[in-house]
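stage 2 :: seqdesign
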């Protein structure tokens, strides 16, 4: 049995998880409320909050698992991509823990881990499959050939899908992170009330900056005529913006599925928590005969469970890190 303690600290969630082989026994996450006032993640505050949260979170994850801190076979951490100060907290803790208990270190790529979150619970996708990974920092279509063999086939040229959600939510006066709030408001809104543009980007690429600008100009024009425009139309605005972001995502995923002749289709990352995206994926799946996969909610947004499961497969391959390992802010998939 392989027992792993895993840490995720790439952005603004401090998370720890314990796994035994491919079972995640505990996954504890502390989110940081401090960023709401700044309309985005404030990197300096994020690293301070990680420093404050990391021991209680790890302690809680170990307690919940029923294991003892002396029993682990390896300690896993997020090497990148992410915020440098945030990553440092996890890397430094992992090194100290590895030294204290004389166990190997396993570095994990955060984006690879979002994909690997599909191997925590049933049903698990079969290889090869396509995964649309949509988070606050990334929008990628990945061809997954085996557990740790992934090829990036499409990515955003500018903003990520989560950023598109958060920035448009901010224009509507919603606090950070606006994605989940937009999802809530959209539930009672009409997604076809306002029409936003669809970017003309070739192949499996994405772009959300033009959409962001068009939303800004549209809101400026409407609020000049009616200062209460946003509050009077909030639900329809959220539903229409959400519909456009999700339809861009699903149309590119559909194109990739067709070109690569895939019918095992997965989504991952924070934005895969979006109820509109989940529904659109399900409808596309029914239409095209796909088997679709979405991780459980707690494994969609940043979490250490996905780091633990990735580390398990790296442990099987004996892919351990050297003692001088450093964070990598711009790590590729
Ligand atoms: O994967 P994640 O937790 O962190 C990063 O690696 O970035 O993703 C966070 C992103 C944020 O932009 C957040 O607004 C978005 O995921 N998000 C959502 C929803 N839940 C989280 N966006 C739309 N609808 C949601 N329900
Ligand atoms: Zn993430």
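stage 2 :: out
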């Amino acid at each position: 049995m392989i027992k792993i303690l895993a840490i995720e600290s790439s952005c603004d969630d401090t998370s720890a998880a314990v796994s035994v082989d491919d079972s995640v026994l505990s996954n504890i996450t502390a989110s940081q409320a401090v960023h709401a006032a700044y309309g985005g993640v404030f990197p300096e505050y994020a690293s301070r909050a990680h420093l404050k949260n990391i021991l209680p979170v790890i302690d809680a994850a170990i307690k919940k698992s029923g294991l003892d801190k002396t029993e682990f076979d390896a300690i896993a951490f997020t090497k990148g991509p992410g915020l440098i100060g945030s990553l440092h907290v996890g890397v430094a803790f992992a090194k100290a823990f590895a030294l204290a208990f004389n166990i190997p270190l396993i570095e994990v790529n955060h984006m690879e881990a979002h994909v690997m979150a599909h191997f925590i619970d049933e049903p698990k996708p079969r290889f090869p499959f396509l995964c649309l990974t949509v988070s606050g920092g990334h929008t990628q279509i990945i061809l997954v050939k085996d557990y740790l063999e992934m090829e990036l086939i499409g990515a955003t040229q500018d903003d990520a899908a989560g950023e598109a959600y958060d920035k448009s939510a901010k224009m509507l006066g919603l606090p950070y992170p606006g994605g989940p709030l937009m999802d809530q408001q959209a539930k009672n809104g009409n997604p076809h009330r306002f029409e936003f543009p669809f970017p003309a980007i070739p192949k499996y690429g994405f772009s959300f900056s033009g959409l962001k600008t068009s939303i800004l100009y549209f809101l400026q024009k409407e609020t000049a005529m009616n200062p209460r425009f946003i509050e009077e139309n909030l639900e329809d605005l959220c539903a229409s913006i959400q519909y456009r972001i999700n339809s861009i995502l699903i149309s590119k995923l559909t194109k990739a599925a067709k070109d690569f002749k895939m019918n095992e289709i997965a989504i991952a990352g924070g934005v895969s928590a979006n109820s509109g995206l989940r529904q659109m994926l399900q409808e596309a799946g029914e239409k095209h005969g796909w088997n679709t996969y979405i991780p459980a909610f707690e494994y969609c947004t940043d979490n250490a469970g996905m780091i633990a499961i990735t580390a398990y497969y790296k442990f099987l391959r004996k892919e351990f890190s050297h003692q001088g390992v450093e964070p990598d802010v711009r790590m590729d998939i």
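stage 3 :: structure notes
- The first strand starts at residue 3 and ends at 8.
- DSSP finds nine helices and ten strands in the chain.
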